[in-house]
Structure to design on (558 residues):
């Protein structure tokens, strides 16, 4: 595995990669979710590129940029083991030469749900992903469905700006008890960790009711909400049942594919998860 | 010359072009300024691509989008004659599928001078140029120095988003009497056209004083201003002497390369021009 830290090194290394090139951008602190993206990329591409970059512009001033977990040595070992061909670990100065005057923004989709709780978050995401796409020039880019809104925002950016990249949505990888894999899970205390099972339990409860014929948006939301509210350490940031493509909140009877998504806090730790309910 | 109107046709045609590929985006209604870009691109590239697209998002609601001069037949004949290999004439629907939610914005540089008089103008420019770069994938892109602020904003976008494109600044082409070539010159009445010579006269007056040793920013601006104010039909929108890279207005003695730029109205027609004064 080639490891590069500057844009000059990246451009040189990129020229030597046979195509099609698969890419997955990460914030590092790898878990099974990341590794499943590598596996899928390896099946579909001749070369796989991964980036590790804790992007400051997607964190708000009071968010966890500085404490975000980092373990470069372990990450590189995992990526090499998984069969990544090129790992890109740029500095903030390389990625934001002369500051952050230039932003890419997807209005609408970026402003609801997680975007409403974390103003500017998705602007930071779309900006850094645009930079990385221009640098890595992948044919296919892999994103986990756990970050459903992120995938939607990036797909919209790619379509609108005509990036010559295919976005691949990959299934959420879960711990044995159902908790979605996330680098932020390490923040949880043992007690919080146990109660965090309620996120996937909420999704499963709504899925089961949906499978049994329940179509009322309000009742489906309430079933999910009940699971979270039964956990004393859990606090709901949002719990949404919205049009899967528009993220407009749904009311009454479900007629279109819906994204059931939620953000739940345990202390300072915000976890997200989601599922799709398709009539 | 291949002419394409859809993105699918463009992607197919692009694959057949030998590199390096030179590109110049235009609003059409070609003049000698455009043709000089083709000439330079032909000298430096194996293939030359031109786009003609009157981009709605760079016009304000009360600006000249609908009356902007168009002559597709003449444009295509001129481009073919000049040796362009591929002409791209997309529709608004092809360029903005599903609306204009996604924008690329260069804060700061986009907000002064022409950006202050035309709010949102440069956001429209950077957005459409980002789209076109992703579609055409040029190695080099050619822009006229007449639109000095536009070149600066695009260079900043390219650097910040790491587009793999070299921006080439091309000299302003002028009519025999000094007026910079512009598609908007056709809007001028004969009387306005005569007085429009004052734009280049203003630049030449400042250049002459500068060459003779004048370094005071205020006096240099005033010399230029005097030329415009001597013309009864001319109205100054702005007249700026600013740092060439920052566009911050300069005061006192010039110590850094300065951009002397101006926008002058004749009725509803806004003309721009500029020169660089380098100590």
């Amino acid at each position: 595995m080639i490891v590069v830290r500057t844009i000059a090194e990246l451009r040189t290394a990129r020229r030597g990669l046979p195509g099609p090139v698969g890419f997955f951008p990460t914030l590092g602190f790898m878990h099974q979710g990341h590794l499943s993206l590598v596996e899928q990329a390896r099946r579909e591409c001749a070369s796989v590129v991964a980036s590790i970059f804790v992007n400051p512009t997607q964190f708000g001033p009071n968010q966890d940029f500085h404490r975000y977990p980092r373990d470069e040595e372990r990450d590189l070992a995992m990526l090499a083991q998984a069969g990544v061909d090129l790992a890109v670990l740029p500095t903030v100065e390389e990625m934001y030469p002369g500051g952050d005057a230039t932003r890419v923004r997807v209005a609408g989709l970026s402003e609801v749900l997680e975007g409403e709780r974390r103003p500017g978050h998705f602007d930071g995401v779309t900006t850094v992903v645009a930079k990385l796409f221009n640098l890595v020039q992948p044919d296919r880019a892999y994103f986990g469905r756990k970050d459903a809104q992120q995938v939607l925002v990036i797909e919209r950016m790619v379509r609108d700006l005509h990036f010559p990249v295919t976005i691949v949505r990959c299934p959420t990888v879960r711990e044995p008890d159902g908790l979605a894999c996330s680098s932020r899970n390490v923040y949880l205390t043992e007690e919080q960790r146990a109660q965090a099972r309620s996120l996937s339990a909420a999704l499963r409860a709504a899925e089961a009711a949906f499978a049994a014929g329940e179509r009322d948006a309000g009742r489906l939301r309430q079933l999910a909400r009940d699971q979270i509210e039964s956990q004393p350490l859990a606090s709901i940031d949002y719990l949404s049942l919205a049009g899967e493509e528009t993220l407009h909140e749904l009311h009454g009877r479900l007629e279109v594919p819906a994204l059931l998504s939620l953000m739940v806090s345990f202390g300072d730790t915000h976890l997200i998860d989601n599922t799709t309910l398709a009539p």
